[in-house]
UniProtKB/TrEMBL annotation:
This is Uncharacterized protein.
Length: 303
DNA sequence: TCTTCAGCTGCCGTCGTGTA
DNA sequence: TACACGACGGCAGCTGAAGA
């Protein structure tokens, strides 16, 4: 098997996880409608924890698949990129970057900031796993949607979406190979122009001097040097929302979002639950949750 | 030698505001 | 009213320097 075949096989196994409950933790059923409304407001705080648990369990799940036997093993690396790599004789080493998405949160908050330069051999794919508690606000984490997308494609779309010199610059990590591992940079960053109108005109002139096609993003050393000259000469601010998967307008991610929001879950679509929990008042949220899940007032829980 | 702390990088989340 | 964007907060992991 080669890298692409391993990734194709992993993608196939990952798709089979749809509807699967991970037996990693279980949220207790709230004891009252009020508690249910309160829980609904803070349940997204669990997302980072569950996301990590899902990452561990996905690695275990893949290693249980006999089709990989004899070729290597999936290994989790945290910290490190990607989250999960296929350790064996296959070169380049296949990898999966796993991004958990809790679709009741305000947006897909996972970022994807890795440089296009990391995907020269198309050896790393991004696996997005949407999860919800099996009874919306309690129960075990349940996978409600999966998308596996080549990482290089996401990085390219991201850079083309954001990079609009001189207004917005995407910068590759600097050469930090001489530093210790904790101080090495691997991520791209986005910078937004903060200068005056007159400075903007000057910056535009600089970009025009780069010649035809000078605004098209390139991760090369030469082009990055031009961008750093702009950054040194004019005021820019670091964009801390850069590369949020929700915002990069990748067609496959947008399709995945639409599918998850349209999916039926506990009597409504996921999108309807999202809107209800985000916009509804406490009284209506608690009443709806109580009716849907048989939660009685005064702590009397119907089981 | 061990412990503590600062510095840096990376990750994930909500909320407020402006706009179509 | 929905959506996009910007601002901001919190936390973890790692390394190296400084001090006990």
């Amino acid at each position: 098997m080669n890298t692409q075949q391993i990734l194709a096989l992993a993608t196939q196994h990952m798709q089979a996880l749809n509807g699967h409950c991970f037996d990693v933790l279980e949220l207790a059923k709230p004891a009252s409608p009020e508690a249910a409304a309160n829980l609904a407001k803070i349940i997204s705080k669990l997302s980072p924890l569950v996301g990590n648990l899902i990452e561990f369990n996905t690695c275990e799940y893949l290693n249980k698949q006999s089709s990989f036997a004899g070729f290597g093993k999936w290994r989790r690396q945290d910290p490190g990129f990607p989250d999960t790599v296929f350790d064996g004789q296959i070169s380049p080493m296949p990898g999966l970057e796993i991004k958990a998405w809790f679709p009741l949160a305000t947006e897909i908050t996972a970022r994807f900031k890795d440089s296009q330069n990391h995907f020269a051999h198309d050896q790393t794919h991004v696996a997005m796993l949407a999860w919800l508690p099996e009874f919306l606000i309690f129960g075990k984490p349940k996978i409600v949607g999966i998308a596996v997308i080549p990482g290089g494609s996401i990085a390219k779309v991201r850079d083309e979406h954001y990079h609009k010199a001189p207004d917005y610059l995407v910068l590759e990590p600097e050469d930090t190979s001489a530093r210790t591992s904790n101080l090495q940079q691997t991520n791209t960053n986005g910078y937004k122009f903060q200068g005056t109108a007159a400075q903007y005109v000057q910056a535009q002139q600089m970009v025009q001097n780069w010649g035809a096609g000078g605004t098209a993003y390139l991760p090369t050393r030469e082009y990055q040097a031009l961008l750093r000259a702009l950054l040194a000469q004019f005021p820019y601010r670091l964009d801390t929302n850069f590369a949020k998967l929700d915002r990069i307008a990748h067609p496959s991610i947008e399709r995945f979002k639409a599918e998850v929001y349209a999916a039926e879950f506990q009597g409504r679509t996921v999108g309807e639950w999202n809107r209800l929990l985000a916009k509804g008042d406490d009284a209506s949220i608690s009443a709806i949750l109580a009716a849907q899940f048989g939660i009685q007032p005064n702590g009397n829980v119907v089981r």
